[in-house]
Amino acid sequence: MSPTTAMYVAQGIHGLAYGMILFLVASGLTLIFGMMGILNLAHAAFFMLSAYFCYQVLVMTESFLLALLIAPIAAGLIGVMLERFLLRRVHAFGHIGELILTVGVSLVILEGVKVFWGTESLPVKVPASLEGLISIAGLEYPIYRLFIIGLSLLILGIMAGILYKTRLGMVVRAAVSDADMVNALGINVPLVFMFVFGAGTWLAGVAGVAIAPILTVFPGLGDQVGLDAFMVVVVGGFGSLGGAFLVSIIFGLLSSYGVQFVSQLAPVLMFIFMAIVLVIKPMGLFGERE
Amino acid sequence: MRKKTKAVLWVLLLVVLVCYPQIFGIYYTNVFVTFAVFALFAITLNLLLGYSGLLSFGHAMFFGSGAYGTALALEHIKGCPLLVALLFGFLAAVALALILCPIMVRVSGTAFAMLHLAFGQLMYVLALKLRGITGGEDGIGGFPIPPLSIPGIVSIDMNNPLNFYYFAMTVLLASMWILWFFTKTPFGGIMVGIRDNANRVDYLGFKVPQSKAVIYLFAGGFAGVAGSIYAIFQNLISAEDGFHVFVSFAPIMMTMVGGIGSFFGPIAGSAIFGIIEELTSRYTERVELVMGLILILVIMFAPMGFMGLIQIIKEKIFCKEPGQKQSEEAIIEEAA
């Protein structure tokens, strides 16, 4: 294979890996913002917080697998508490209330992180078993990025399975489309919402752990991904998991190939893409409601 | 009687504004100018958010284009009078709003917010990358600030902070007054009507997209004036100060903390933010932590913002329905 093709493929893998991490964050946001309609600006803060948890677990146990298990769950639990004790009370004031509250929460998390771990970026090592390159069809791929892609696909599969094939998923979808009716049927809707919020935060947490070895851990970790994930949810269409998946990959590829071909304009390619989509379809690619 | 108290309050406000620099000294005068700039900026945002129900995540692009418009005019046009430079800022923002409004009047809700985010980021990146025009990360700074002169009569040196304070206050107050007057006209009524029920306004025979466009131009243009004053005040404008997404978020937070439902809410919010920053940065480096906690507390315990809180307190004290106007006056005193 010629070096040019090899470079294209390598860029493609980088783009896919970022797209997949973006999808993990955005799928959580699809649950919280797209389905439940909670404007959660603290989502990226949980992503960042989980990366710090990952660092902490690694320092204490040196096991990446353990970090991958514990850190997202810890972030998810904090998310559940946020929903139970704060967000639930301001839900009556609509998006505006949620916006103020979640901005406040993300500021507190950001500053809290700075107090506990400081502002410098902390290194997280790629686990030994996922280090190095693997050679497929004459090309070398970094194993860790392939691992990220695999992990995201696995989670997408599990999520889609739960949402569309199980009774639990049916209850969640029903509660999202008509909470009062489902409540009247004797199902504890606030509990369902709390669970969904926790699951969404957990997904952001998984992404945070996955990205920690690539970018190292620092307070501004969530800024870029958080903004991108919001755009993914809006462009993909509210509540559409498939839309979020497709747009995440497009964004990932846009960012990696954009840097290669039009490096000056690379930072705005996603915004231009979003603007074009929203001008033509204000509800997003696969959206059914605003 | 009510008219009289009102007039007295206005005179009081003017007296306080005139005497302010003499009492508080130069440092707090500059703090006050920054506050007033952001108050006007937040009011223009509230024109969209509060009066029209349109949340924008990219209002900074008008602020920034106003600032860059003025800075570029002062930098490149020899002997450009101050007011003309100000006009350039205003027109730059209006031009941007004019370009965007055919798209923006068609969408609302999340699409409106996100489209603004998109175009705001586009402007931010353009300001960073078009190095030849905008100076990239360094921005435009050190441009000459001409005196405010009426040919043959008077020429006031604007490099004197005191003179500049009076000039900035005049421009900002005049802008605020125009916007306030704008919301009181029948057209302002249509604006609120569109927010509450666009279909009905349409059936009544008013042109909804065109009306939205006019509101949009007003909001954009006067945000440009705020940016313009800011650029002259700092004698520097950079992409970070003008177009960054945080510049878009600041007035949203100010408006919400101050109270969305009222014209004077954004002023109160801007004052509250200024005071909190001033006070907390004196005792702790964790300004953001305090800010975050305050935001959480505000929404938990005073969800209608500061203006709503005043309303509630007044009702508790006087045990009767206080009109909207009464609490507005309270805020004028507060802001002064």
CATH architecture call of chain A = Orthogonal Bundle
CATH topology of chain B: ABC transporter involved in vitamin B12 uptake, BtuC
Which CATH-level-2 architecture of chain B? Answer: Orthogonal Bundle
Fraction in beta strands of chain A: under 5%
Q: Helices and strands of chain B: which structural class?
A: mainly alpha
What's the main sheet of chain A like?
A: 2 strands, antiparallel
Low-pLDDT windows of residues of chain A: none
| Domain tally of chain A | 1
Key terms for this structure?
heterodimer, A: 290 residues, mainly alpha, ABC transporter involved in vitamin B12 uptake, BtuC, two-stranded antiparallel ribbon, 11 helices, 77% helix, 3% strand, B: 336 residues, two-stranded antiparallel sheet, 15 helices, globular
Describe this protein's structure:
The complex is a heterodimer of chains A (290) and B (336). Chain A has 290 residues and is mainly α. Chain A has a single domain, classed as ABC transporter involved in vitamin B12 uptake, BtuC. Chain A is built from 11 helices and 2 strands, in the order H-H-H-H-E-E-H-H-H-H-H-H-H. Chain A has helices spanning 3-35, 43-61, 64-90, 94-117, 143-165, 167-177, 179-184, 189-215, 221-236, 241-261, 266-280; strands spanning 133-136, 139-142. In chain A, helix 1 packs across helix 9 (221-236), helix 2 packs across helix 9 and helix 6 (167-177) crosses helix 8 (189-215). Chain B has 336 residues and is mainly alpha-helical. Chain B has a single domain (20-308), classed as ABC transporter involved in vitamin B12 uptake, BtuC (Orthogonal Bundle), CATH 1.10.3470. In chain B, 78% of the residues lie in helices and 3% in strands. The relative contact order of chain B is 0.16. The A-B interface holds A 86, 89-90, 93, 95-97, 99-101, 103-108, 110-112, 115, 227, 230-231, 234, 238, 264-265, 267-268, 271-272, 274-275, 278-279, 282-283, 290 and B 55, 103, 106-111, 114-115, 117-119, 121-122, 125-126, 129, 245, 249, 252-253, 256-257, 260, 286, 288-289, 291-296, 298-300, 303.
